[in-house]
Every structure is written in C-alpha cells, then in structure tokens.
Design goal:
By secondary structure, the chain is an alpha+beta fold. The chain is built from nine helices and 16 strands.
Length: about 350
C-alpha cells in the first residue's frame, strides 16, 4: 500500500472544531491484516479489482453505523465474510475480526478499537477507547454464557475506574452517555472523548446512486435523499417535480433521458453541494449547525463516468472539502485523472 497527498504542506494547527475520522484501521478484516489507512478531508482508495477498496469502505460504514447505535446483527448481516481469509478457529471454535479508527477534534486524537466475534455467536468481545495515552473505556468478554461484556471506564475519583456490564451487541462508546454521570473530571473526559468519536462516526452518509431506480417515480417520503438517490426529485421539489437539466445552451433535458453516467454525476454533485439537511443522515443534535460535518462514502465514485466527468467531480469535491463541512472517502477504478487534483489523499492498494 502507498499513500500520497497533493495537499499543501501542513503547518502547525490548532485542534479542529469539527470532529472527523483521520485514520481507519483494519487489524484483521476480510483480506486486510494490520492495515492502517490515513483519512484526509478528501481521500480516494485506488487499486485493481480485488485489492480491498470496497472492503475498506464497508468497514468504515460499519463503524459509523455502530457509532449511531445500530445493533451488531444489523451492521454485519453476513459476519463470516468479514473474518480474515484463512483464519482458523481457536480451541473454543471462535473466529472474528478487528476494526478501528481515530477521530480528531476539540479533544485531540481519540482512538477506538473493536474486536468482534463472528463464530460461534456474533458479539462484541472487546472494545477500547483511548486518548492521550490514557485508556478511557475498555471492555472484555468474561462469561461466554452471558450476553454482556465487562466494562471499565476512567473515573479518576475515589476509585480510578468504574466497572459495570454493557450489552455485547452494541458499541459501548455510544452507550457511555447513558452510563457515565460526569461527576468527576475523569468521567467528563470520558464523555467528551466518546462524544467526539460518536459525532465523527454519525456524520457518515454512504452514497451509491442507482440510475435504474433514479428513473422510476419517486414516492413521497421524508424528503431526504436516499442512499441510492432513488428519490432524487424529492429533495429538489415535492416528489412530483419533473426535474430538467439545463446544459447552458438553452436546451433542457428531462433527467429520465440522461445516460447512467450523467445521472450518477448529477446525484453525486448534488450530495456534495448540499449537506446533511437534505440527506438521509442523522445529524448530531448536540452539535451546532455551523459545526456539522458530512462525511460522504462513495464506493465506485467514478463508476459509469468518463475521465472528464470523474475529474470534474473530484475537483468539485476538493472545493467543497476545503470549506470544512464536507468530507469525502471514495474508491475509484481509474486513478490517473482524479488523483492529480490538489488536496486528495490517495491510498493505493496496488499489491
């Protein structure tokens, strides 16, 4: 794996106001082992088919959904596919996988690592939240017969840690605000770090426009753009609008007549130009609107696009990401044109 960036040399900066993921770790996940991927405001995974681009984005999305409070079986409906290839079960017939990330923000870098058992039962068997070299939360499976893990979180009061059970099918970090009172400085530090991680993860919006579904009638719904952009016309109007594309020459083309590549380009550009207000993402209510960040996950970002369209789309992404309220993590098949755009962090998975 190689990593490069065309961004200007970084100067010493204050801690960012907007929490965002800065590293994805796949210690043992599908074909990835001991992998660490840097995440900038605009990150593109490249490499040949089968190199693990989609797998990396899938792991990131899984962490995001866990951070949003989703149950483990909802996030991993096929956990066996996440177990590293050729991984053998231990003496208790257990196999699993490990993923994690780092989120930077007002609290500085906060690190989350999660160990998941896929067999014989799907469960979280270990979780660790750390910041500044201090372990703020640590969980471990003590009794396989109970559907809980034993958790210990930093207190720094009369007792250095507080212990208690947490469910083994939810991310403990996302549950901390319900369990930690915040009476001591240590507990308040735990809550601040957990909030930063959860806010960074909840900001993720996975987008994979489907031209076939986009051409169908859009039913009235919540008014937010779906993952496949099926209801593209709804955020633009009231769901009954017949959207037209003006190419600038006075000719207006009905969206249903556009090619697949043009429809994907249009949908992805709309996502980048808008933000969490019209997308199917749960914004963090405790974060001021001015500090909200949207992280777009776009597998196959250049799928169906010609080189010119792909280049224009990435340049648009670079401009939007530079403003700070949009981040993009995508995977591309052809890196020649899009990775020449300044500001792109390129993760090349070519063996």
């Amino acid at each position: 794996m190689t990593v490069s960036s065309l961004a200007a040399p970084a100067q010493a900066e204050a801690r960012p106001d907007r929490p965002g993921a800065t590293e994805l770790r796949l210690a043992a996940f599908a074909a990835h082992r001991r992998a660490r991927f840097p995440l900038g405001p605009l990150t593109l995974f490249t490499g040949p088919s089968g190199s693990g681009k989609t797998t990396a984005l899938r792991a990131y999305e899984a962490l995001a959904r866990l951070g949003g409070g989703a149950a483990l079986d909802e996030v991993f409906p096929d956990p066996d596919a996440c177990v590293p290839e050729r991984a053998l079960p231990d003496a208790q017939r257990r196999r699993g996988f490990r993923i994690g990330c780092t989120a930077d923000g007002p609290e500085g870098p906060v690190r989350l690592d999660v160990a998941v058992q896929a067999e014989p039962e799907l469960r979280i068997v270990g979780e660790r939240l750390t910041a500044g070299g201090l372990t703020l939360l640590e969980t471990a499976l003590r009794d396989p017969g109970r559907r809980v893990v034993q958790a210990a979180w930093h207190t720094a009061g009369s007792s250095p840690v507080t212990r208690g059970p947490l469910p083994d099918d939810r991310l403990g970090t996302a549950l901390l605000p319900l369990r930690v009172s915040g009476r001591t400085d240590g507990e308040r530090r735990v809550l601040a770090a957990a909030e930063q991680m959860v806010v960074a993860l909840r900001s993720v919006y996975a987008c994979d426009p489907s031209p076939r579904r986009m051409r169908a009638a859009a039913p009235l719904g919540a008014g937010r753009l779906l993952r496949g952009c099926d209801n593209l016309a709804e955020p633009l109007g009231d769901g009954t609008v017949r959207a037209l594309l003006d190419r600038g020459d006075g000719v207006r083309t009905h969206l249903g007549l556009l090619g697949d590549g043009e429809l994907r380009y249009l949908a992805l550009a709309l996502v980048l130009l808008t933000g969490p207000g019209v997308l199917e993402v749960d914004p963090a209510g405790e974060v001021p609107a001015a500090l909200q960040t949207l992280t777009v996950l776009a597998d196959g970002l250049d799928r169906g696009l010609d080189a010119r369209q792909a280049g224009e789309l990435v340049r648009l992404a670079a401009r939007m990401c530079e403003r700070g309220h949009i981040r993009l993590v995508g995977a591309v098949g052809d890196a020649v044109r899009v990775c020449e755009v300044p500001g792109v962090t390129v993760v090349d998975l070519t063996p």
